[in-house]
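Sample pair:
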Amino acid sequence: MKNTASAVGYIRVSTDEQATEGVSLAAQEERIRAYCLVHGLTLSAIFMDEGVSAGKALAARPQGALLLAALQGKHKAAHVVAVKLDRLFRNASDCLTTVDDWDHCGVALHLLDLGGQSVNTKTAMGRMMLVMAAGFAEMERNLIRERTSMALSHKKARREAYAPTPFGFDRQGKALIPCQSEAEAVRHMVTLRSEGLSYDRIAARLNEAQVPTKRGGLWHGCTVRYILLNTLHEAS
């Protein structure tokens, strides 16, 4: 019979968050341990995913998979504790489906920072707040994605640098200046594509002709596809 007070914690940071105040692994761990102590939960383990994006499903993360395993079997944990919703889940569907599965197995999720309040999904109020929070979190991610896409399109239209210098251009300060030799290679790719060649076959042709890539090395179909679908080349 499982211990109804047994708990496991989960903490995660992506690479660009590790120096952010309040998001570090140590800060998350400290809050989880304090919460379990106050609420009488026996913390058996804390699973830490460092440098892992929220874009990965929990089961696809090294420590996330171990967390899910800890919720199985005879001595499974009955509580999962995390600081924030986005530490665990990538979107609302992922969150609600997983928590619903946990609920059927008698596992409660505790979130310590949901609008300044802690939430326990064992309660009806906690479940309602989780559903609302998951929806708002996904909306925020979508808004960020939209703003990023708009900013990227704006930079492309103004021929401003927005990432590693794309094939077909050289960088001068913030400006992207056409590189004639690479632009010719792009036009050749367009011609080959119009003739019905696959991306992989175009890459093979470029390798046969010893056309240099931006960073050296061989051409690959995925690289050719990325270049030909880049709207930056439409006005070239």
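The chain has a mean pLDDT of 79.
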